């Protein structure tokens, strides 16, 4: 009974201390996605990515037109060719189609890599600015109010070491 009373008192004191700690923290919020989009460097990154995408799209369209012309020509000439030649041409068209699909995939991957590469410094700059402003204004935490986002830390207690220690129980 005495042990139960001690545990209850310890829990009440712990919750009271946690409430005091939370009450002392200053919290702000920002829509980080909107903030990033307002940065001048974001606009230049998006312009560069749009240009790359247009270039790839034009190249793919040109390849598709060439494949279409070849297909139409082969269709017209099909009656004058042997079965073996027509099969060879059909295989050639399939290879062209496969090549175009592979190029489209490569272009998509390249665009994704380039976006990550170009956006990394923009996002880092946004994080630095948010942290600097939060620190100057005395905020401990900055909540990201963007849809589906988490918390950006300015100057708050990092639970990482305690969480890692708890895993080793």
Mean pLDDT: 80
Approximate helicity band: over 70%
Strand order of the largest sheet: 1-2-3
Question: What's the alpha carbon Rg, rounded to whole Å?
Answer: 30 Å
Largest sheet: 3 strands, mixed
Order of helices and strands: HEHHHEEH
The fraction of residues in strands falls at 5-15%
- Taking pLDDT < 50 over at least 5 consecutive residues as the criterion, the unreliable ranges are none
Please identify the structural class as seen in this structure: mainly alpha
**Form type:** rod-shaped
Number of structurally distinct domains: 1
* DSSP strand count: 3
Kindly, what is the distance between the CA atoms of the first and last residues, rounded to a whole number of angstroms? 27 Å
Number of helices: 5
Structure write-up:
By secondary structure, this protein is mainly α. The chain has one domain. The chain is 78% helix and 7% strand. It contains five helices and three strands; from the N terminus they run αβαααββα. The protein has helices at residues 2-24, 32-38, 40-77, 83-137, 160-167; strands at residues 27-30, 141-144, 151-153. Strands 1-2-3 form a three-stranded mixed beta sheet. The longest helix is centred in the middle third of the chain and has 55 residues, at 83-137. The model has no long low-confidence stretch (mean pLDDT 80).
